[in-house]
Automatic annotation (TrEMBL):
Any one GO biological process: amino acid catabolic process
This protein's UniProt keywords: Magnesium, Metal-binding
Entry keyword annotation includes Magnesium: yes
Source species: Nitratireductor arenosus
Recorded GO MF terms: hydro-lyase activity; magnesium ion binding
Source organism phylogeny: Bacteria, Pseudomonadati, Pseudomonadota, Alphaproteobacteria, Hyphomicrobiales
One Pfam assignment: MR_MLE_C
InterPro entries noted in UniProt: Enolase-like_C_sf, Enolase-like_N, Enolase_C-like, Mandel_Rmase/mucon_lact_enz_CS, Mandelate_racemase_C, Mandelate_racemase_N_dom, RHMD-like
Signal peptide from the UniProt entry: none
Alphabetical list of PANTHER family matching this protein: ENOLASE SUPERFAMILY, MANDELATE RACEMASE, MITOCHONDRIAL ENOLASE SUPERFAMILY MEMBER 1
The Mandelate racemase/muconate lactonizing enzyme C-terminal domain, residue ranges: 161-261
Superkingdom: Bacteria
Keyword Chloroplast: no
Protein name listed in UniProt: Mandelate racemase/muconate lactonizing enzyme family protein
């Protein structure tokens, strides 16, 4: 089996004004991603997704160019059934054979960022192909699924102090969620404003619903500690990205100083970055984004690090369908997973990009058992929303 064709598009889907939300990332008026299609000579097609922007909107011209003009030519003619070997070849670049025989990595200079987003997109598509070729869902290739449904949490929560309770309660009513996540940090200004919103959320939801908070890395260490102290009696289930990913020691300091579990990792790429998070004791919950951290191949290694450090895994799944399904399969197979992120913001890149209906009922989401990643992309939709 050989790779015959690779094509990536910057897909940009506008979001209707009434469905937009505003956060520290600004007004979210589009949902963007790099969507990649890998076709084999025998006609099997796999789909992947690469990310390079926080929030739903972003510019993807450079990433798509990288995939189409630099990565694709290297892979045409290769056997697609070797996602792990291809991952190492792309990561190590011209020294990949030396690295393979030496038994350790020798990455190229640009070893993070767009390079890893491109590798992620290809890797997800190759796992999709491998599963379709073998007639098996990807979770089976990873060792099996621990359940046929997994609990999901509702991810949203941008409303102000007067309406946050209603907003989060509507999530609980809509999908039967037992856990919800709200945004805090820079969109509120000082820590006491975020803390008041969390208290209002807890008052509305009562004690039986888990509340997680996500600061998108917008506090500094001192303000993160102030915030954590102010919500110490609100039973917060996790505090996500209290500070930027480049301040791992600061994150470790916050973790040591507060009683709330720390979640982090959507801005990290590769097993090496997550090893550092674990060794520095900076996080309780790893949140790799499979469209950015290195795809399923790397996500599986990151999941193993989480498990071996007695930490947990909750991938960042604010994404399009290929990335979302990749995370679903990873969680189905990983001993460290426990909950699935389900975005309650407008997400056409999940709901309109694929033919399947993806929904949460009684707070649970189905793990698909179709071959590969288990979704069917609407190619017309991709082409209709592709940016020239
Ligand atoms: Mg987040």
């Amino acid at each position: 089996m050989r790779i015959a064709r690779i094509e990536a598009w910057w897909v940009r889907v506008p979001i209707e004004r009434k469905n937009q939300h505003r956060s520290d990332f600004g007004q979210i008026a589009t949902f963007d991603a790099a969507i990649v299609r890998v076709e084999t000579e025998c006609g099997i097609v796999g789909w992947g997704e690469g990310k390079n922007a926080a929030g739903s909107a972003g510019e993807y011209a450079a990433l798509v160019h990288l995939i189409n003009r630099e990565v694709a030519p290297v892979l045409i003619g290769r056997d697609p059934r070797e996602p792990g070997v291809i991952w190492e070849a792309l990561y190590n670049g011209v020294r990949h054979r030396t690295a393979a025989s030496a038994g350790h990595a020798m990455p190229q200079l640009a070893r993070r960022g767009h390079t890893l987003a491109a590798i992620s997109a290809i890797d997800i598509a190759l796992w999709d192909i491998l599963g379709k070729h073998l007639g098996a869902p990807v979770w089976r290739l990873l060792g099996g699924r621990k359940a046929d449904k997994l609990p999901a949490y509702a991810s949203g929560g941008w409303a102000g102090v007067d309406t946050i309770g209603d907003q989060l309660s509507s999530y609980v009513e809509k999908g039967g969620f037992r856990a919800v996540k709200m945004r805090v940090g820079a969109l509120d200004g000082p820590p006491h404003v975020s803390a008041a919103r969390v208290s209002a959320a807890r008052a509305a939801l009562g004690p039986g619903i888990d509340i997680m908070v996500d600061a998108h890395g917008t506090f500094n260490v001192g303000d993160a500690k102030r915030f954590a102290a102010l919500v110490a009696d609100q039973d917060v289930a996790w505090f996500e990205e209290p500070v930027i990913a480049d301040d791992k020691r600061g994150m470790a300091e916050i973790r040591a100083a507060c009683s709330i579990p720390i979640a982090a990792g959507e801005s990290e790429a590769t097993r090496f970055a997550f090893r550092d998070l674990a060794v520095l004791r900076a996080a309780d919950i790893f949140q790799p984004d499979l469209g950015y951290c290195g795809g399923i191949s790397e996500g599986w290694k990151i999941a193993a690090i989480a498990s071996s450090f007695n930490l947990r895994l909750a991938p960042h799944l604010w994404a399009g369908a290929p990335c979302f399904f990749a995370g679903l399969h990873l969680c189905a197979a990983s001993p460290a997973s426990f909950i699935i992120e389900y975005s309650l913001g407008a997400n056409p890149m999940i709901h309109d990009l694929v033919e399947e209906t993806i929904s949460v009922q009684d707070g649970m989401i189905d793990v698909p058992d179709r071959p590969g990643l288990g979704f069917t992309i609407s190619e017309d939709y991709v082409r209709k929303h592709a940016v020239d």
